[in-house]
Amino acid sequence: MFQALERIRRGASAEAENGVQLLKDATDLCPGFGDAWYYRSLFERKLSHIPKADFALKRARMLGSEAMDQGLDPFTLATNPGAALSSRVHDKWALVIGISKFSDKNVPRLNYPSKDAEDFASVLKDPQVGRFNPEHVHTLVDADATTRHIKEELNWLARSAQPDDLVVIFVSSHGSPRELDSREVNYIVTSDTEIKPQDALFATALGMVELTQVVRSRIVARRTAILLDTCHSGAAAGNAAADAIAEGSVSQDTMDSIRQGVGRAIITSSQAGESSYENDDAKNGYFTYYLLQALRQNQGMDSIQEVYGYVHDQVSKSVQTKFKLRQNPVLSRSDGNADIVIGAATSGG
Fold this sequence. Notes:
alpha/beta, Serine Threonine Protein Phosphatase 5, Tetratricopeptide repeat, Rossmann fold, 2 domains, 6-stranded mixed beta sheet, 13 helices, globular
């Protein structure tokens, strides 16, 4: 199912044709999986296979589907590319997540993600830097950052943010590599994720494509920035699955999927095949540490492109100097949109 969703970029029929067979495989392998039936109905309808679409939707309604309840639709972009973009940000909303401790003992504990989240939220709330209404910044750390709770908070963003608003999503945690999943899917490792056996990873982690779908089809704000300090290299837990988590990074498919629509930008802490490292002196991840610096140095008024340039240069240089290893942050953004400025003043009062 996740593979089928990752194939949707522009919403073309050819993409649906490639994905519908994967969804057929999903419903064959797991007939009781309501989300797979729901997405299969959308793909079939996109291809004008109306009887098949109606049958799949009937199955989804009978079994229950969280994706259906949320109204997720990979073929519908929440932002209208033809709509005029206001020169001012009306209001701002943020979801900030940091997970250092995991209930599954097979997941290596990290030192600083919870502090990363608290420090980043503090900068957003700073009236001289982020200029966010403190009530509009929701922070989840450690035990509060379960998969279910994160999904609920993503839905809060979707319900709250309006077209002329700005949304920021920040995550500091482990990210699983595609190789750890039988269908080569990236996950964000949440506080209650179980990485063994393999089926448990699918059932308990937050699929990166699930984040993609909320941003694509639910968040109507035409300025949305996603900042991912994931793929941390932590203390080895002594098993292959745990060791592999330290090598995970966000796939290009996910990057391309999130950037579709209007005003989307995603910055990840490292390239594919690289890990993200922690700075013991600063007590933050290197990515988060320099992200905070980038926001503070011009009181939050640099564009997302300028923030990325500073973070990329500083992280790459510092990790190479300290560890003789590579960590290169990556930016992907929508084409032809106004710059996203995290510290922009709001016109909504």
